UniProtKB/TrEMBL annotation:
InterPro entries: AlkB-like_sf (IPR037151), ALKBH7-like (IPR032870). Its cofactor is Fe(2+). The keyword DNA damage does not apply. Keywords: Dioxygenase, Oxidoreductase. GO terms for cellular component: mitochondrial matrix. The lineage of its organism: Eukaryota, Metazoa, Ecdysozoa, Arthropoda, Hexapoda. The gene is ALKBH7_0. One of its GO terms (molecular function) is dioxygenase activity. One of its GO terms (biological process) is fatty acid metabolic process. It comes from Melanaphis sacchari. This is Putative alpha-ketoglutarate-dependent dioxygenase ABH7. The keyword GTP-binding does not apply.
Length: 258
């Protein structure tokens, strides 16, 4: 038995410290933050995005184009904030929400079981630094004046949900990004013109960031499924608990505000 245990330990150590694993470990431990971001961006999208597109041969070219457009306009970055950073953000958000009750109606009937607020500036400097880091990622090609300086905080209770909608072009520009806190969730996106034909399910892990822009932002409805609804991803039930999201947007073009 002693020899068997020793052999097992030797095998495990060889696997853990094999050349390929050591290479990836050294890359992760020695990279700068920007390099780490690249690693996160290179995660296989199939882990987080499932397409429900038609597979007829006669429209294959169209389907390929639609998928390429979606791929270029929707991104999920997992583990964009740490557990400690999530905790600090939630602690400050709680202070803004503590006097608010969960609402079950919305002015355009888009959200149920929610509380919301807006934050222009963060009191905790570490939270300011985190949000700025995310802004640098989301709005990499935009000036400060093109970004909305306030962020929208949406707190969904356990059975809260967001119905399919497209954000009005009067209230934000071509980029919408959301940091998901406290719970995994499933976002369902559907082509506005072909809502039963081109559908995408996106798994939004806790502490991940999604970025939607351009064609996805303008042409696809998006919704957050509740735990009571069939919140399923890749044939697996996703238990949705209370979810807090920090939503960042850019300013709408001047002509859209007229």
């Amino acid at each position: 038995m002693f020899i068997f245990n020793l052999a097992c330990k030797k095998f495990m150590l060889n696997q853990l410290f094999s050349v390929p694993r050591l290479f990836h470990l050294s890359k992760l431990l020695s990279t700068s933050f920007s390099s780490t971001e690249y690693i996160l961006n290179s995660v296989d999208k199939n882990e987080y995005i499932k397409y429900k597109f038609p597979n007829e041969i006669k429209i294959k070219n169209l389907v390929d184009i639609k998928r390429q457009q979606f791929d270029s306009s929707f991104t999920i970055i997992p583990d964009i904030v740490s557990v400690d950073e999530e905790s600090r953000l939630i602690n400050e958000i709680e202070k803004s929400l503590k006097r608010l009750r969960y609402q079950h109606d919305h002015w355009d009937d888009a959200i149920h079981g929610y509380r919301e607020t807006e934050i222009m500036s963060w009191k905790d400097q570490k939270n300011t630094n985190v949000i700025q880091r995310l802004r640098n990622k989301v709005f990499a090609n935009e000036s400060i004046t093109e970004q909305m300086q306030r962020v929208h905080v949406l707190d969904l209770c356990d059975d809260g949900y967001v119905k399919p909608h497209i954000d009005s072009i009067r209230f934000c520009g071509n980029i919408i990004a959301g940091l998901s806190l406290l719970s995994d969730s499933v976002m369902r996106l559907a082509d506005e013109n072909y809502p039963d034909t081109y559908v995408v399910y996106a798994l939004l892990p806790r502490r991940s960031l999604y970025i939607m822009k351009n064609s996805v932002r303008y042409q696809y409805t998006h919704e957050i499924l509740s735990d009571g609804a069939p919140s399923v991803f890749n044939d697996k039930q996703i238990v949705r608990k209370r979810r807090v999201s920090i939503v960042m947007r850019n300013e709408p073009p001047v002509e859209a505000m007229k």
